[in-house]
Structures are given as structure tokens and as C-alpha cells.
Amino acid sequence: MANNPATIVLASGSAIRGQLLRHAGVAFRVDPADIDERAVLALAAVRELDRPRQAAWLAAAKAQTVCRRHPGAFVIGADQMLELDGEILHKAPDASAARETLLRMRGKAHHLHSGWALF
User: Model's pTM, two decimal places?
Assistant: First the structure.
């Protein structure tokens, strides 16, 4: 399928990211990247990237993967990484794990690193 050069594709299935674009009045398609984020993070660690650059690297990996499926389109990749006590916390698989994460975070400072990329 040929794309109009003005086509915008969001390389994420995140409802919040889609909502942000809709509220900004941006027309877009959704095509989640479905990449192995832990493998990308392992490569970023080998390159000794700091956490903000790791988030940007993940966003770029998502955008680059999806742009191959949509030649001529603008592809937006995005990622966030939650850091607590120097450790990246990944998405909880269920409500019980999410509760444990929240209890672990209680009373502690944490960092949310966000990265965006446009291909």
C-alpha cells in the first residue's frame, strides 16, 4: 500500500500516546513496533548510554522498525522507562505485580525517562 507523504504513523499501541496525538488534532494510524525491548536495552547498555538516551534509542528502534512498513510516511516512535534505585522497572504483567511495584516505590524518588523519535 502506497502512503501519502503526509501520513503519520504511531509506532505504538499505547492508548495514552494515541490520545495525546488526537487531542493535538493530529490524524494518524497506529502500527505497534513489537520489538524485543530488552534486547535493544542490552545493546544500549553495551554502548554505555545513560537512561535518557536509552529511552530515545528504544523510541528510534520502534520508529525505524515501523517505517520499513510505511515508506514515505512520518513514523513516530516513543518510549518511557521508569527508574527506581538505579534499576529499570518493566511493565507489570498483572495487577498483583503492579501493586508490588507501587509498594516498592512508596516514599521513594523515581525517574521517568521519555524518548521520542521521528523517522
Answer: 0.81
